[in-house]
Amino acid sequence: MSRSNGGDPRLPAAFLQPGVSSFADFLAEQAPELLPARRAVPQGNAGDLAPHGTTIVAATFPGGVVMAGDRRATMGNIIAQRDIEKVFPADEFSAVGIAGTAGVAVEMVRLFQTELEHYEKIEGTTLSMDGKANRLSALIRGNLAMAMQGLAVVPLFAGFDLDASQGRIFSYDVTGGRYEETAFHSVGSGSLFARGALKKLYRADLDLQGAVEVVVQALYDAADDDSATGGPDLTRRIFPVVQVISAEGGRRLTDDEVAAVADRVIAARMIRPDGPAAPLVSTGSADDSAGGAQA
Q1: Minimal CA–CA distance to 262: which of 211, 194, 210, 213?
Q2: Which of 197, 264, 274, 275 could form a disulfide with 218 if both were Cys (CB 3.0 to 4.6 A apart)?
Q3: What is the pLDDT of residue 148?
Q4: DSSP string computed for 153-173
Q5: Model confidence over 120-162: pLDDT tens digits?
Q6: Is the predicted pLDDT of residue 33 greater than 70, yes or no?
Q7: CB 135 within 8 A of CB 115
Q8: 192-215 burial, b if ≥16 CB within 10 A, otherwise e?
Q9: What whole-number distance in Å separates Cα of residue 187 and Cα of residue 226?
Q10: Listed range (1-10, 98-107, 129-138, 239-248) with the worst mean pLDDT
Q11: How many other C-beta atoms can be found within 10 angstroms of the C-beta atom of residue 51?
């Protein structure tokens, strides 16, 4: 404060004037050096110098949307952290999961959370789901220079649209391109394997329990084939972070709740290591659910 206002203890004039509803735009004007993307990075590829987050999955169900992320961060061929958290609430009705350079991604998430809170305080209302998705797109686009040097962030965004009364999922590319996904999606190094599992197990009529079990199954399959994705760690009792968002708001499932699902999945894998078999033709019966398919 003293730096920008000559030692005067009062707030600078810029803080007392009506401004834009975007906190990122305000920060870019008043203190651009505080933005993650404005920090100087040495020339060359810096991607191997920082831990990377890996696999995030999301799936909608009739009452909302579920997002889950594994807990492993890697640095080259080294496990940098076993219990990193990659899924965060963005606001009351949305969540963001991070894949890519972990440090830059966490800073971007914090800026995004502040951006949504700032908008609500300035405008007196919350942003629409499309508005939130667009704001995140702008933050990713601002990180393009760092992404070109290997410090890329590719998040997954999901939330409950109060106007449409349904869960929605948005994916991005490193340039900030925004794409709405249908039913489910995954990002990160294990996304290919996770998406394959989701294709076989997902159904539009899954209830909350079924949706949670499906995303945990998908993360298990991703960890089974991708060394950068961490599966449930039974010895350390480290399990995926699972965020559920519905019309009542968002909440993170407790470790005990996720552990119960993971324990069921692992017990079934002891019998069938490759996971539950999806029916060739769905009959729509309860026996075709993700839980029933495990047996």
Answers
A1: 213
A2: 197
A3: 81
A4: B--EEEEEETTTTEEEEEEE-
A5: 888 888 899 999 999 999 999 988 887 887 788 899 999 999 9
A6: no
A7: yes
A8: ebbbebbebbbbeebeeebbbbbb
A9: 13
A10: 1-10
A11: 18
The amino acid that residue 92 corresponds to is E
Say if residue 78 is exposed, middle or buried (CB neighbours under 10 Å; 0-12, 13-18, 19+): exposed
pLDDT of 223 > 70? The answer is: yes
Q: Which of 145, 130, 133, 131 is nearest to 175 (CA)?
A: 145
**CA 270, CA 42: separation in Å to the nearest integer?**
48
SS3 state at 180: strand
Active site residues: 54
pTM for this structure?
0.82
**Any idea what DSSP says for residue 21?**
S
Compute the chain's Rg from CA coordinates.
20
Tokens of 107: 């800073």
The residue type found at 231 is G
